[in-house]
Write a structure and sequence with these properties.
By secondary structure, the chain is mainly α. Helix content is 45%, strand content 0%. α3 packs antiparallel against α4. The protein is flat and about 90 Å long.
Amino acid sequence: MAFKLPGLKFFSGTNAKSRVFVLLASFVGVAVLIYVSMRLLTGGAAPTGPSRVAGAPTGLQSIPGSKQLSPEYYRTLEQANAQAVRQAQISGGSAVPTLINTPAPQEAPSQNCTILCPNEDNANVADDINALVKAGKLSQKDADHLLDLAKKKCVSC
């Protein structure tokens, strides 16, 4: 015997199998809704305990990147950093170099420096500002203001 739900007109044109299927599907839907809401409203698992950071080993003789670098160690670190960069470029990954404190000028190994760092004698910010404007990263109004400040050599503005 199929029972009829007179209050719901949706069921009036369906047969008994369809009504049973719809009722079971709605029961499962309500059960899933209750489960999901309970998972969201109740807290998750208890928080984990505090974390700890290990200290340096007791017999550590040298610290990578420290000020007491021998020229051989400095060259070896530079070569290892360059090798890591080449490997990262080949594999498409990334490389993090070993940090090295710049040795004093008398300790520095002889290298060809190809970077010209700006100082008061050769500072040319106009090219940099114009490049930012061309790239669309800086508005022309802001660029004009920055160029005026650079001409005035306004440091504290």
